[in-house]
Amino acid sequence: MTIKELLVWFGILYFLLLIVGAVVIQAIGLKSSSGVNVAALLAAVMINCSSYGKKNGFYLDKDEKTKVVLGMIAIDMLLQLVFTLLTLPGAGKPVSLAIILGVLAFVGALHGIAIYVFVGMVEKQLEKSGYK
Questions:
Q1: What gap in Å lies between CA 99 and CA 67, rounded to an integer?
Q2: What would the pLDDT profile of 31-43 be if each residue is shown by its tens digit?
């Protein structure tokens, strides 16, 4: 598996998990989906990074980790922006672009930290399982 494939599969899985999460949230009548959003993100990170390590028999080196973390953050921010723009018409009130960008930057920073930590966590789990 290549870095590009890892990122493509991450984007696909994350998107699907976000959709499934949104459907479940709507079905049970909850208003907030931030917990589901984070769970989808972390599951997509862990599943894809673990698959990369297992398929290749080794994990990411330092430069590859940087590329993967930055790539995952970019994919995450793109999906966050798309879903934000799709839900704005239902908000009922106009929202300023500055507020949208500020919220996305804040969410991006939090998600970026989570992605960084979980990419490293997968490495430790793989090492315990005998992968290098």
A1: 29
A2: 767 788 899 999 9
Q: Domain extents for the chain?
A: 3-128
Among the listed residues 40, 4, 1, 5, the one whose alpha carbon sits nearest the alpha carbon of residue 19: 40
Spatial CA neighbour of 113 closest among 17, 11, 41, 32: 41
User: Nearest-CA neighbor of 79 among 104, 43, 98, 115?
Assistant: 104
Closest to 121 in 3D by CA, of 70, 31, 53, 22: 53
pLDDT tens for residues 66-82?
A: 999 999 999 999 999 88
Per-residue tokens: 78: 């793109």
Which strand (E) or helix (H) includes residue 44?
helix 34-56
- Alpha-carbon distance of 72 to 131, in angstroms, equals 23
DSSP per residue over 62-95, as a string?
HHHHHHHHHHHHHHHHHHHHHHHHHHGGGGSS--
- Global pTM reads 0.88
Give the span between the Cα atoms of 31 and 18, in whole angstroms.
15
